[in-house]
Amino acid sequence: MISTADLHIHTTYSDGTATVPELLAYVAAHTDLRVIAVTDHDAIAGALEAQRLAPEFGLEVVVGEEVSTREGHLLALYIEEFIAPGRPVADTIAEVRAQGRLAVAPHPFQLFVRSLGRVGLLRRPVGMECGWTVDAVETFNAGTSLQYNNHLAERYARKRGLPMVGGSDAHHLGAVGQGITRFPGRSAADLRRAILAGQTEAAGCFWGLFGLADVARLRAQRIFGRIAEAPTPEPQSMAR
After folding, report:
1. CA–CA separation, 169 vs 212, rounded Å?
2. Residue 235: which pLDDT band, with cuts at 50, 70 and 90?
C-alpha cells in the first residue's frame, strides 16, 4: 500500500494562519493524507497538540520543528523535545541525532528564505565528520519561489544518494497537501522506515500567486483581528 504524507506544515503556533484543530479538520475532510508533520518555526507546542488530537480525526502526526540554525532552516522530524534555534547547523543536527530522530534539509536552494544550500551545502564539505549529513532532502516544496529550486534540490539529493521527501510548507489551509511524500505503508512509523530506506517519492503542485495572496490576506485578517480585540487603555489623569 502506498500512502501520502505532508511533512512541512505551519500553524498559528508560528507564522501559519490555521489553528491546530482547524488544520486537522481540514486534512481529514479535504485530503487523502494519512500522516502530517507539524513543523512550526522554532516551536513544538503546536505539533504536540496536533499529535494529541490526531486520533479524533483518524490521522497520525509527526512532531517536528523548523529550526532556525545559523546557516539556515532545518526540519527536525519525530522529535520529542524542543530544539533551540540560533546554533550552528552541525550542532543542531547532532542534537536531532541524539534524540534518535531525522534531520531534513527543507527548500535547500530557495532564494528568499534562509536555506542550507545557498550558504552551506554547496560551499562546505559534506560528511558525517563535518556534521553536515542530513537524513533526507526536501526535493519538492510547494511554496518555493521558482520550480528550478526544487530541481536543484533533487539533483543534489540524487548525486549524494540521499532520500527525497516533499512538503507543502503550508501557512494556510488551501496549501496543505500540495507538496507530498509518497511512502509504502500506512503509519508514521512506516514513513520513518521508508525515509531511512530511501523508499520515498516527492511530488505535488505549487502554491502559485493566488496561494501567496491568500496567505497575505489571512495574515492581515489575524493581525487586524488581534488589534481589534486588544483592550483600549484607560486614559490617565494628568498629574497636578
Report:
1. 12
2. low
Task: Tell me the per-residue pLDDT of 36-92, one tens digit each, with 9 for 90 and over.
Answer: 999 999 999 999 999 999 999 999 999 999 999 998 999 999 999 999 999 999 999
Question: Torsions phi, psi of 33, nearest 5?
Answer: -65, 140
Q: Look up residue 101 and give its amino acid.
A: R
- List, for residues 159-188, the tens digit of each pLDDT value: 889 999 999 999 999 999 999 999 999 999
Q: Is the dihedral of CA 44, 46, 47, 51 positive or negative?
A: positive
Beta strands in the chain (DSSP E): 2-9, 35-38, 60-68, 73-77, 102-105, 136-141, 164-167, 179-184, 201-204
Q: What is the DSSP letter of 100?
A: T
Query: What is this structure's pTM?
Result: 0.85
Instruction: For residues 47 and 62, give the distance between their C-alpha atoms in angstroms, rounded to a whole number.
Output: 7
CA dihedral 39→45→47→52, nearest 10 degrees, is 180
Contact indicator for 17, 214 with CB cutoff of 8 Å = no
From CA 186, how far away is CA 34, in angstroms rounded? 7
- Cα separation, 19 vs 132, in Å, equals 33
